[in-house]
Amino acid sequence: MMLKSLKNLLHKKLDDTLGQDSDQRKHVLQLSTATLLVEVMRADYREDLTENEVIFHLLKEFFNMSNEEATLLLEEAASEADQAISLQGFTRFLHENLTIDEKHSIVEMLWKVALADQNLDKHEDHLVRKVSSLLYVSQRDLIKIRNRVKYQ
After folding, report:
1. Which residues belong to any copy of the Co-chaperone DjlA N-terminal domain (predicted)?
2. Would you say residue 15 lies in a domain?
């Protein structure tokens, strides 16, 4: 699966290029991603258990985390989302540190959360599109990724 190969590439890239502060930067990457996923879950003004479970499993899979690590990251991301004024701090870090394929993986995860309850709310759709734009993912790629997730 595309997500798995990109996950491996991301981990290798993080390990190879982040230097001494790799743990801190890796955590910022994980937290930024998780916070965006939480924001999509909350975009329709309700926290759905299905969407929460999807986020938990995506974090475990994408970042190769234990249940405990994913739970802690999800709790921290929820707190960050509560305090966030703007998405740009999260998206800027991701944009500056990820390849286009890795950004596509993030967008894929966002769509998986938005579509988890089989109902794409207009607010979820808008937020995924906004984040994609901030990550400089083209509209064409955004739609291709959405359709791939939707029809899996």
Report:
1. 31-147
2. no
Q: Is 117 exposed, middle or buried (0-12, 13-18, 19+ CB in 10 A)?
A: middle
Mean pLDDT of the chain: 88
Q: Which residues contact 84 (CB under 8 A, 6 or more apart)?
A: 35, 39, 90
- Angle, helix 139-150 to helix 122-134, in steps of 10 degrees: 130
**Domain total of the chain:** 1
> For residue 19, is pLDDT > 60?
no
CATH code: domain of residue 46? 1.10.3680.10
Return d(Cα 135, Cα 91) in angstroms, integer: 6
Is residue 64 within 8 A of residue 14, CB to CB? The reply is no
Q: Which residues contact 103 (CB under 8 A, 6 or more apart)?
A: 94, 95, 135, 136, 137
Q: What is the DSSP letter of 18?
A: S
pLDDT at 20 > cutoff 50: no
**CB 95, CB 133: distance < 8 Å:** no
Higher pLDDT, 5 or 92: 92
- In sequence order, which residues have a C-beta less than 8 Å from that of residue 17 and are 6 or more positions away? none
13 is a domain residue: no
